Each structure stands twice: as C-alpha cells, then as structure tokens.
Amino acid sequence: MANLAARLARLAATFLLLLPCVALAQPTATAPARLAPIQSMPPAELEALVDAAVRQAMDRDHIAGVTVAVVQDGKVILKKGYGYADVAALKPVDPDRTLFRVGSITKTFTWLMTLNAIEHGRMRLDAPVNDYLPPKVRVPDHPGYRQVELRDLMTHTPGFEDFVLKAFFLRDPARLQSLDDGLATQRPARVFPPGEVMAYSNYGAALTGDAVAHAEGQAWADLLETEILRPAGMDRTTGREIYPPRPGLPAPMPPALQPDMSRPYHWAGLGFAADPFELVGRFAPAGAISSTAGDMARYMTLLLAGGVIDGHTIYGPGTAQAIRMPMRTYPGDESAIDGGFFQNTLGDGLLTYGHNGATIDFHSDLVLVPALRLGVFVAGNTESAEVLTQSLPGLIVRRFYQAQHPPLPPQPSLLSEAATYQGEYSPARRPFHGLQAFALAFRGSSVSVAAPGYLVLDGERFVLAGPPGLFQDVDNPHIKLRAVIDHGRATKLVLDGGELWGRDVLHENRTLGLAALVSALVAIGVLFGLLSPARWRSQQTTVQRIAGALRAPIAVLLLLAPVLFILKLQAALNDQNSVVYGWPQPSVLLASISGLIAAVLSATVAALTPFTWLGSGGWGLWRKIRFTATVLVFAGFSALLALLGALQPWNP
Question: Where are the beta strands (DSSP E) in 323-469?
C-alpha cells in the first residue's frame, strides 16, 4: 500500500547494502562481466552471495523468514529457506514444505489460463470481457468509452479506479464472498478510456480470472489445479485459503497443506508479532496463491521451457510466445507488458520478464532472464521484506553477468530546466470517489531538481540517461523514470512497468492546505467573536439572528473534521494494518459526518446571506461585509471537501 515512488526510493537507498560480496566503490572504468551469457553460475558462489545478502537483510530489516529458489539450464541450482515459518514454535523455513503467500504472482497463473483458452479458440484477446461473464458481474457501459476487452485487463489498462482499503484484503472469514459476488459488490468506477492509461488493477485481474473460469466451465481454483498445478507436479501450491468451509465459497486450503503455511509477521519493536491469515478470496485470481520455493522452481522451469516440464505440455506455443511478446508498449520506455508478465531490462540490455507480489505481510518476486536460461524466486513472510525481495534477483544477475560501468554523471544543464520537471505528481492508480479518494489524495510524490544536476523524486536521486526526459536511479541503475514533456513542461511520469503519475495541480498549488488554513483562522475568529459583549447587545433582524447563530456550529465542525482526518492519517503512517483492515475507522466517519453537517449548514447560511443585507436597522455595513466573507470562506472550503470526496460517509 505504500506509495510506489517511496518504495522505489527505499529499494534504491538500500541497494548497496545488499552487496556483501561486491566492492562498494563505484567503478571509474568499465569492468567486464564475470561470466558470458552461455556460462552457468557456480552454485557454491551463488549460495554464498545469496546467504550473505539474505542474512544481512533479515538482520537489518527484521524479517522472520525467507525462501529462495534459483533455476538455470533447466535445473535447480539453489533452493533454500532462512529463518522461521513460525517464530513462537521455532519452526524453520523448509523450501520444499513451507508455503508462502506469493501475492500478485498469482496473476501470472491467471494470465496463463486465459492465454491457453485464447490459443484454443475458447476466448478472444480483443473480445469484450462481458462476453464471458455472468450478467451480475458484467462491466457497465460508460458513455463515450468502448467496452473493456481482455487485452485491456491483461495490460492493466481497463480504466478502473482502484480501491484498497477494506476491499481487497480481509481477515474475517465471515466477510468472504464468492468470486462472482465480490466482483459484483466491489465494482470500481470507470474513470479512463480503456487501453489508454496504465493503472495497475487487482479488480481487472480478478475479473479476468472470473471470465476464464466461466469460459472453461470450472471454478477458478479448480481450473488452476486441473490446467497447471497437477500437470506441472506443483503439489504444494494452492489457490485456496484458510477458512471454515461454507456453502457458496470454494473449498478451503487442503488440511494437508495448512500446517505448513508460514505465519505472517510484522516487527513490533522488540520482536515479531504474528498476524492473522490474509484473505483475498473474493478476488482470488489476483492474489490468493500460496506456494513453496520448490514448487516455484518448477514453475520457473516450466515458463523458461515454453510450457513443457518433465515431458508434459502444460500450454502451447501460442501461449509461450504471448508471454514473451509485448501486448502493449509505452513509447520511449523500456518496459512493456507481455501476456500479463512485466517486461524490463537489467543493466546491459538483458531482457527480463516476471512479476512481483505482496499481501500486507508477505512479499515476493519472480524474475526470468531468457538469455541466461535463468529464473529467480524469493519470498519473505514479514511486512519489511520488500527491499530484499525486490533487490535480490537483480543483485544475482549483476554479480555474475553484467559489466560494471562507471556511474552516469549529473548534468548541470538540468538546473536550467528545473521548471520543466518540478512539482507534485499523483498516481493514476487511486480511488476517484468517496472517502478513500480523499484519504489517499495525499500519497503523491514531489519532484525537484538539485545541484549539481539531479532529478530528485521523494528524496531519491536520478540522472539523465539518454533522450530528454529519460532518467535512471543513481544507486540502482535498472530503475528508470521517464517524464512526458508537452510544451516544455513535464505533464506525466512513467515509472518502470508503465505505471503513470500525472501532475497534481491541487497539491502543487497547495489549494487544500491553504483553504484549510484560511477556514481554520476564520473559524477561530468566529468563536472568539462569541466572547464580545457588543455582539450580544447589537440589534439584529430575525434573518440576521438565525444566520449569525448558525456560524458557530459551522466553525466548530469545520475545525473538528480536519483534526480528526489528520489524526487518522498520522495513525496510518504508524500502523497500516489497522487502516487497511479497519477502514473506515469511527474517527474518519465522524470527521466526514462533521464536514457534511457543516456543508449543509454553510449552504443554508449562504442562502440566507442576501437577506441579511435587506431592511433597515440591524447590522452595520462593516459587520455585513465580515459576515458575508466568513460565509464565502466556509462555503468554499465545504465545496472543496465535497469535490474531493470527504463528505461521503455513506461511500467509504
């Protein structure tokens, strides 16, 4: 749930710490790669590198358990567990037995089943997804937009807004729904034309899984088992979760696997705290799978071999080609989406494809490098494992196969172009309506230009890396950023994987902050004005008395609502679990209701204000002007809160 730019910053900032076997000094001249692509990695050296990196990360980042698998040339060359699957029981991680949640790596299984159905003519890539869905799940039409197609879903361009809080992850099994029911009741709004804006969509992936399940005539979990898991010999992988059996829901995780499911953890300051099992069942095709390192080694072997393992063909050549060919590219960017897999490059142009994954506590990554016949899988069972899982595959490739180049220098010319890039940006992947839209409106990123020529994104430095607008991370060169420039001004940022961030005019101009400050000062002035004896002695008309009396509760409510929101946002920074699973908290609802009542009262007073100017007697001219200005401030701030979704307690 953390903002993507901030995650990139953390990854890059810690990258050099993961190089225990490599000199930390940057090379001043190009040093050749240790191995040619046709050579295989020495297993002992690989194990030493991974051991050092994993153990250092576990100590530094407080990770309870890690599991790793590396395959090359069709063989498993490293398979190892580290730490504990159950800290209290001192149960170690076993790479062949311990199951870890793999999060969004689940999507790659869903994409394979969809591509297989397309290859056999049971689905069409450019067909509307509604062709394969039951009526209650179908995507509603939108004026001016075409229908959402399978290609849009597989490239994360369906145009949906994105909800996270109390929508994707659950802890209470009583709230679980079937896939059809979850998709029907948690439907996001359509906010972009299909095929145009890359905004990663869990809902879109789950919708694809439902579509292929209906097209093939099996429930998604059953289809997963019959089409991939059983034929591939992945007996310790499952798309089922731990909950009591219930009519209308898929069968839970087999009892034989449940004892070997790793516990999820977060670091509590003095030790590891175990969390409940994280349920994603109503969006299962987007993130429900649990697996072992041993089974994921078989999965990578299968992918690298074009769909064949142990003489069994799991999918055909059409599917094998699709997951290595871009379905949609981003002009000027090195990334693309290949049949649902993310394509990228490492260092010296080595093409990779794969997918990472995360629940709240589990983190994982799967990276395939066809030119090296190489696959790397890593997963951690703790909330703080993300840096390790996102860095380890690249570390392995760089250690053995990439030349060490001198770093790109900062370009002083960038200082004169600072106005082109500087400003606030927000992600296309976000909610656009309701309380979540308001609560998550503050997770944007700040871009600045610093001497002697760095682009700085949330504190992380980038340098120009070729054509105008293309940058690479100073400390982690495979992280790229591209600015889309229009009429001399960057209007968008495209991060690795094609994720789009646009200019955030509201926050660039500090509109909300300034409006809140002005409203608070006026509200405090109104409340202090109640202490003035002259106020109570002055003559007033009936309308003036009513309108004046309503200002005080408006002032109190407009002071209360921002304070409650700010306190909850601060709490979210300290404990994202409570926000994700407990949304909307009572304080958030109280803040929204307070703001809504203030808005209704403000509208009422605004309607009465013209009448406070009528008739003889009553208020003097200066008091009428002050009163009208106050009403305009309160009404304007209320309108801004309404525009941002803050005044919708019924739509959390």
Answer: 326-329, 336-338, 341-346, 350-358, 363-369, 374-380, 423-427, 445-450, 454-457, 460-464
What one-character DSSP code corresponds to residue 371? G
Within 13 Å of residue 86, how many CA atoms lie on the same side as its CB?
13
Residue closest to 491 by CA, chosen among 440, 414, 500 = 500
- Cβ distance 258 to 242 under 8 Å? yes
* Alpha-carbon Rg for the chain in angstroms: 28
Token pair, residue 644, equals 């941002």
The pLDDT value recorded for residue 34 is 83
Q: Where does a domain end: 492, 507, 522?
A: 507
In the chain, % of residues over pLDDT 70: 89
The model's confidence at residue 9, banded by pLDDT at 50, 70 and 90, is: very low
Contact 228, 237 (CB under 8 A): no
Give the Cα separation of 40 and 77 in Å (integer): 10
Q: Which two tokens mark 229?
A: 């898991």
Residues 515 and 502 in one domain: no
Q: Which residues of 278-302 are buried (b: 16+ CB within 10 A; e: fewer)?
A: bbbbbbbbbbbbbbbbbbbbbbbbb
What are the tokens at 455?
């682009």
Query: Is the same domain home to 389 and 259?
Result: yes
**Nearest CA to 15 among 379, 299, 395?**
395
Q: Which pLDDT value is given to residue 253?
A: 97
Q: Are 326 and 396 in contact (CB under 8 A)?
A: no
The type of residue at 204 is G
User: Do the Cβ atoms of 68 and 79 come closer than 8 Å?
Assistant: yes
**pLDDT (tens digit, 9 = 90+) per residue, 437-493?**
887 766 667 899 999 999 998 888 999 987 888 898 887 777 788 888 888 888 888
* H runs (alpha helix) in 62-105: none
| Closest to 457 in 3D by CA, of 10, 11, 6 | 6
170 with 202, same domain: the answer is yes
Question: Which secondary structure element, helix H or strand E, spans residue 489, and what is its range?
Answer: strand 489-495
Residue 15: pLDDT band with limits 50, 70, 90: very low
Tens of pLDDT, residue by residue over 206-250, are 999 999 999 999 999 999 999 999 999 999 999 999 999 999 999
CB 65 within 8 A of CB 361: no
Position 265 scores a pLDDT of: 97
Give which of 558, 579, 556 is closest to 435, Cα–Cα: 579
Tell me the residue range of the domain where 445 lies.
412-507
CA pair distance 186, 281, nearest whole angstrom: 13
Residues 438 and 547 in one domain: no
Closest CA to 549 of 472, 608, 467: 608
CA angle 568, 446, 412 (to 5 degrees): 160
Q: Which of 507, 540, 561 is the last residue of a domain?
A: 507
510-561: per-residue pLDDT in tens? 778 888 899 999 999 988 888 776 666 667 888 888 888 899 999 999 998 8
Instruction: Judge if 445 and 583 occupy the same domain.
Output: no
What's the mean pLDDT in 109-128? Answer: 96
CB 157 within 8 A of CB 194: yes
Which stretches of 381-441 are assigned E, i.e. beta strand? 423-427
Per DSSP, the residues of 66-121 read: EEEEEEETTEEEEEEEEEEEETTTTEE--TTT-BEE-GGGHHHHHHHHHHHHHHTT
Q: Give the tens place of pLDDT for each residue, 306-322.
A: 999 999 999 999 999 99
pLDDT in tens, 358-399: 999 999 999 999 999 999 999 999 999 999 999 999 999 989
Residue 635, phi then psi, degrees to nearest 5: -65, -40
What are the structure tokens assigned to 483, written together? 């600015």
